[in-house]
Amino acid sequence: MAVVSNDLEAVEEDIRVQKGRKCFYLRKMIVDFIGTSVRVMATVFLADLLLRIYRCVVEYICNWRYYLPEDRLWVILRRSCTYNSKSIYLLVGFLLVAFFRISITGNYRDVMPTVLFLAYMPLYWIWSFSDIGQSTLSYSHWIRDSHGLDYAAGMASNYFHGYLKLSLPERKDDGLKHRMAVYEDANNITFGINRLIILIPDEMFINGVLESKLLDKAEPLETQFINRAGVYRPFKHAVYRMNKKVNGRTYYFAIEGATPMLSFFDSMHSNLSATWQMHELKREIWLKFYKHLKELITTWPETRDLVEPIIYSSHDTKGNLVDIGEILLAHMQNKTKSIDEIAN
User: Fold this and answer.
1) Which segments constitute the STING ligand-binding domain (predicted)?
2) Phi (first) and psi of residue 226, to 5 degrees
3) How many CB atoms lie within 10 A of CB 27?
4) How many C-beta neighbours within 10 Å does residue 337 have?
5) pTM score, whole prediction
């Protein structure tokens, strides 16, 4: 019996030893993985820093015309050495991991890149110069960001600041609400929506005269002349009458298409300006234009209650052209699905 007991103890001891070795190797693997990861990230950030310095030199020598002489160097350095928030958080995270690793081992060399790691830096430079990480999806994400520098946001900003913000608010009894009230009194009619309706179809094309079985063109609102950069420019808003009565009444609407979208449509179909990116990302531009324009309209107090942008699909599921009158009718009855669910 003593022999059997000794054998059992020996087996148990062997199992404990094996478990201890497994735990030791597991801990060693984790520690080594952390150390290697920190070394890799340190190598990447060092390679990125050297690349930024190189681009600073090239920019200073080759593209000096884009900068003022008195602050050329400072602007180039600031632009080149600016990191986005994600990169800063990542760098701080790996610095904390590196300090944790050093606190355990007491040896800072465990997280410093070796010569072998540094020898791989040219791979990062090749990757950066070849733009391997870029794709059309990257352009889509860039358009969706709220920097305001993309084509869609630029069109929306110009449309808002150069037209809507000028012609709609009240100045000297010439705002949109005043002109609509005068129009109602003079013609004994009622506007179905007491705002300027801006149509933004996904096709981006709108005729000079809206084509609809339910709408008839009426006299426009009173023309407004506004001084813009030393030139008095006419601002006019079209009016349409719905020939189908709603609750026994005939309603009128101040409607116009989003002219920047029509310009974009023309650009896409012109050999002078069309690019494959414009065709590929036209829906991104369409949605971003609507979202940015709506944000500008609702943020500025003077236009908050004066514009009703309506975004919609130009064709139904069967491919038939959608009647704008039906869209207005559905919008009045509050049955349309919010496009914000699509845009977000």
Assistant:
1) 150-335
2) -130, 135
3) 10
4) 8
5) 0.78
Residues 198 and 96 in one domain: no
pLDDT digits (tens, 9 = 90+) for 31-61: 677 778 888 888 888 899 999 999 999 999 9
Q: Are residues 210 and 124 in the same domain?
A: no
Closest Cα to residue 169, out of 300, 267, 65? Answer: 300
Quick one: CA torsion of 45, 50, 56, 58, rounded to 10 degrees? Answer: -140
Q: How, if at all, do strands 224-228 and 231-235 pair?
A: antiparallel
In tens, the pLDDT along 9-19 reads: 555 556 565 66
Taking the C-alpha atoms of residue 49 and residue 180, their distance in angstroms, rounded to an integer, is 60
Could you give the CA distance from residue 2 to residue 13 in angstroms, rounded to a whole number?
16
Tokens found for residue 157: 């900003």
Alpha carbons 344 and 339: distance in angstroms, whole number: 9
Q: Is 147 left (phi over 0), alpha (psi -120 to 50) or beta?
A: alpha
Alpha-carbon gap, residue 197 to 184, rounded angstroms = 17
Average pLDDT along the chain: 84
Structure token digits, residue 36: 């290697």
Main-chain phi, psi angles of 272, to 5 degrees: -75, -30
Domain boundary among 133, 168, 193: 133
Residue 106, judged by CB atoms within 10 A of its CB (0-12, 13-18, 19+), counts as exposed
Q: For residue 127, give its domain range.
A: 2-133
Higher-confidence position of 133 and 202: 202
**288 vs 294: CA distance, rounded Å:** 10
